[in-house]
TrEMBL record, chain A:
<keyword id="KW-0966">Cell projection</keyword>
<dbReference type="InterPro" id="IPR036322">
    <property type="entry name" value="WD40_repeat_dom_sf"/>
</dbReference>
<protein>
    <submittedName>
        <fullName>Dynein intermediate chain 2, axonemal</fullName>
    </submittedName>
</protein>
<dbReference type="GO" id="GO:0003341">
    <property type="term" value="P:cilium movement"/>
</dbReference>
<feature type="compositionally biased region" description="Basic and acidic residues">
    <location>
        <begin position="559"/>
        <end position="577"/>
    </location>
</feature>
<dbReference type="InterPro" id="IPR001680">
    <property type="entry name" value="WD40_rpt"/>
</dbReference>
<dbReference type="InterPro" id="IPR050687">
    <property type="entry name" value="Dynein_IC"/>
</dbReference>
<comment type="similarity">
    <text>Belongs to the dynein intermediate chain family.</text>
</comment>
<feature type="compositionally biased region" description="Basic and acidic residues">
    <location>
        <begin position="517"/>
        <end position="547"/>
    </location>
</feature>
Automatic annotation (TrEMBL), chain B:
<keyword id="KW-0206">Cytoskeleton</keyword>
<dbReference type="Pfam" id="PF03259">
    <property type="entry name" value="Robl_LC7"/>
</dbReference>
<dbReference type="GO" id="GO:0007018">
    <property type="term" value="P:microtubule-based movement"/>
</dbReference>
<dbReference type="GO" id="GO:0005868">
    <property type="term" value="C:cytoplasmic dynein complex"/>
</dbReference>
<protein>
    <recommendedName>
        <fullName>Dynein light chain roadblock</fullName>
    </recommendedName>
</protein>
<feature type="domain" description="Roadblock/LAMTOR2">
    <location>
        <begin position="5"/>
        <end position="93"/>
    </location>
</feature>
<dbReference type="GO" id="GO:0045505">
    <property type="term" value="F:dynein intermediate chain binding"/>
</dbReference>
<keyword id="KW-0963">Cytoplasm</keyword>
<comment type="similarity">
    <text>Belongs to the GAMAD family.</text>
</comment>
Length: 611, 98
């Protein structure tokens, strides 16, 4: 309800001096409590109110606005000639010079300076005072703790921040960094979001060195390793574009929409070729397309990620792996968690898919072969990172523990074969050194508070760039231990990979045998069982001797229960062997008759031990 | 008397590795130089400010001290600066070990 108080004043009286006077209080409105309103409220008893008798303080922080600075030099062209002399007039200049030279002071000064100068010059010629002593003697490697420090942070200059989805280093040295920015959240890009991607100069984080303006935001950006002026980008709308930095910010050429991918082109990679202009790309629409940048009108080749080469069933891919030393083979990591190894030059289209590696529960976001051991590769997906060997198809040979946050990107160190890096959704970067520690990362760094989306190590192995969800790219420098090869490193890593591969092979063989046995049993042919149990013996060396027992066991219990029983039986056997007090003896005797079924296994177990 | 100056300059130039000699006054005017004018002016202006800054540093730390010699070693050569009250002499010498 509105409370209104009206007062009037004559127009003629406006602007007149105010005369204030006291008067008694006047009651304008009296609002009595409305008992009906009480029904809208529930009485609360008891009531909890916090009281504190403390000085109220508040905290504010302020940051000055970023001051844009630029560096410029001044070119000095002519000295500070006195006013009356025109520096361009040669006569005046020479006259002035001659005048100065006649000055007594000048001559004595020059003589003095000359002598001291000569002294230094002779010194220089005598010995090189900056000589590097003991250059060829390698310093003893001090084992310092692994560490990394942030050198620079490149922020997205736009108001609306986009995720830094892909980073590519300049091929000729760590001077520049190309970062692709794109808002990956489905349909959450506002129309004002900029579509630009930037090339940053490492020394200048205030302003990008160059802007690339695509027609649709870039998801992936790669420098051509052969020609450092050419960049290839995969767009959010599926097109592929390439830029020449000498020609400006607009793409030189774009692929037509009809021929491009139907989903964002998540990964584009340059191929090793004579012309250096070939590349291929993949996307979650399940296609792998090959292009030649000189003719972007249509793809030179096409492949679907499906065994039967059917587009409808093709699995979408997030990442590509290509090693220039193996030009016809490549691998893709799919949304379904499979890693598909393909051969481009297969005889029939159906043979193009060479092998599939399953094991990841979620999409595979990154894939890379170890630069020193190309048979082994790293894959990042769901909550763990896995290392695979090409020969073992069934499972990875090594894997990290389950992380609590999702992994987004990873790569090997180009210098040290045992080191790899991971980025996670909680903004941390993990550095793993498998020679140093296998169950935990060697170094965990909290790079920022928002999820990290992309990662790239520079060729020298010393610098690492990580891109985050708010468009911030952080440049980190690693401690020396992480980029210089340790003693014997190659041998240790080789040994480790071989050991794990062998272990997987053995486990694999065992599983196959068990499966064969099961199948054999259900079919009911004993001959097969005999044969397989012999193989069993060779593979295991221990348990091949109990064919009859095993069959009975399998018929009755499943493997898990069997393992449990074996375990307890071995414990009991041990217990029996030891001198026990009378109580235990009773227990043992009580259990004795129950163990009839297991007696045989016991006996066998003991014979095995003797063996 | 200017002969003596010529002599000195000639002697300095005769040393191994010396590329050039410049004598500059306080106004930044190269009075004598064995390099061409634009280069001399360039050196003169840059060195002048550097030398005065260096002198300022020495003086600030200890007011009784003064700058006697300044050597700037770079990857390609070494710039030697001998300062005086009103003038200074700049010599550019190439690295003897190369």
């Amino acid at each position: 309800m509105e409370i209104v108080y009206v007062y009037t004043k004559k127009r003629a009286e406006f602007g007149r001096q105010c005369n204030f006077s006291d008067r008694a209080a006047e009651l304008h409105v009296d609002i009595a409590p409305d008992d009906n309103a009480l029904e809208d409220f529930i009485e609360r008893d008891p009531v909890d109110i916090g009281i504190q008798c403390v000085q109220e303080m508040s905290e504010h922080d302020a940051n000055t606005e970023r001051f844009e600075t630029g560096a410029r030099g001044i070119n000095h062209t002519e000295g500070g000639w006195p006013k009356d002399i025109n520096p361009h007039e040669v006569e005046q200049v020479t006259r002035y010079r001659k005048k100065v030279e006649k000055d007594e002071m000048y001559i004595s000064a020059v003589l003095q300076l000359g002598t001291s100068m000569e002294h230094c010059i002779k010194q220089n010629n005598a010995i090189d005072i900056y000589e590097e002593y003991f250059e060829d003697v390698n310093a003893e490697t001090i084992d310092e703790a692994a560490s990394a420090k942030t050198i620079n942070v490149f922020r997205d200059p736009n108001e609306i921040k986009r995720t830094a989805t892909h980073i590519s280093w300049f091929p000729d040295g760590p001077r520049k960094l190309a970062v692709a920015y794109c808002n990956l959240q489905f349909q959450s890009t506002s129309p004002d979001t900029s579509m630009d991607s930037y090339i940053w100069d490492v020394e200048n984080p205030n302003k990008p060195e160059m802007t690339l303006k695509p027609v649709s935001p870039l998801v992936c950006l790669e420098y051509n390793p052969k020609d450092s002026h050419i960049l290839l980008g995969g767009c959010y709308n599926g097109q592929i574009a390439y830029w020449d930095t000498r020609k400006g910010s607009q793409p030189v050429e774009l692929t037509p929409i009809e021929q491009s991918h139907r989903d964002p082109a998540y990964k584009t990679v340059w191929i090793q070729s004579k012309t250096g202009t070939e590349c291929f790309s993949t996307s979650t629409d399940g296609q792998v397309l090959w292009w030649d940048i000189r003719k972007m009108g249509e793809p030179t080749d096409k492949m679907y990620l499906d065994k039967k080469q059917e587009f409808a069933n093709a699995q979408g891919a997030y990442c590509l792996e290509y090693e220039p030393t193996m030009p016809t083979k490549f691998m893709t990591g799919t949304e379904q968690g499979n890693i598909i190894s393909c051969n481009r030059k297969a005889k029939t289209p159906l043979d193009k898919i060479a092998a599939t590696f399953t094991g990841h529960i979620g999409p595979v976001y990154a894939l890379q072969r170890n630069p020193h051991f190309t048979k082994n590769f790293l894959s990042i997906g769901d909550w763990c990172a896995r290392i695979w060997s090409e020969d073992i198809r069934e499972s990875s040979i090594m894997w990290t523990k389950q992380y609590s946050s999702y992994l987004t990107d990873g790569c090997w160190s180009p210098i040290r074969p045992a080191v790899f890096f991971l980025t996670k959704m909680d903004g941390t970067l993990d550095v793993w050194d498998i020679i140093f520690k296998q169950n935990n990362p060697t170094l965990t760094l909290q790079v920022c508070d928002v999820p990290l989306y992309s990662l790239r190590v520079q060729e020298s192995g010393k610098l690492v760039a990580a891109g985050s969800q708010d468009g911030t790219t952080t440049l980190l420098e690693l401690s020396e231990g992480l980029y210089s090869m340790a003693r014997n490193e190659k041998n240790l890593v080789t040994a480790m990979f071989e050991r794990e591969t062998r272990r997987e092979k053995i486990l694999d063989a065992r599983h196959r045998e068990i499966r064969l046995k099961e199948r054999g049993k259900t079919e009911g042919s004993k001959g097969e069982k005999r044969g397989s149990s012999d193989d069993f013996k060779q593979a295991e060396g221990e348990e091949g001797e109990k064919p009859a027992e095993e069959e009975e066991q399998y018929q009755e219990e499943d493997l898990y229960a069997k393992a449990e029983k074996e375990f307890f039986s071995i414990i009991e056997a041990e217990k029996k062997k030891q001198p026990t007090p009378s109580q235990d003896f009773d227990d043992v005797e009580k259990k004795g008759p129950e163990e009839d079924g297991e007696e045989k296994t016991n006996g066998n177990a003991e014979t095995e031990n003797k063996d | 008397m200017s002969q003596e100056i010529d002599e000195i300059i000639k002697r300095i130039m005769a040393h191994k590795g010396v590329i050039g000699v410049i004598i500059v006054n306080n106004d930044g005017i190269p009075l004598r130089s064995t390099l061409e004018n634009s280069q001399s002016v360039h050196y003169a202006s840059q060195i002048h400010s550097l030398a005065s800054k260096a002198r300022g540093v020495i003086r600030e730390i200890d007011s009784s001290n003064d700058l006697r010699f300044l050597r700037v070693r770079s990857t390609k050569h070494e710039i030697l600066v001998a300062p005086d009250h009103d003038y200074f002499m700049i010599v550019i010498q190439k690295d003897a070990s190369n």
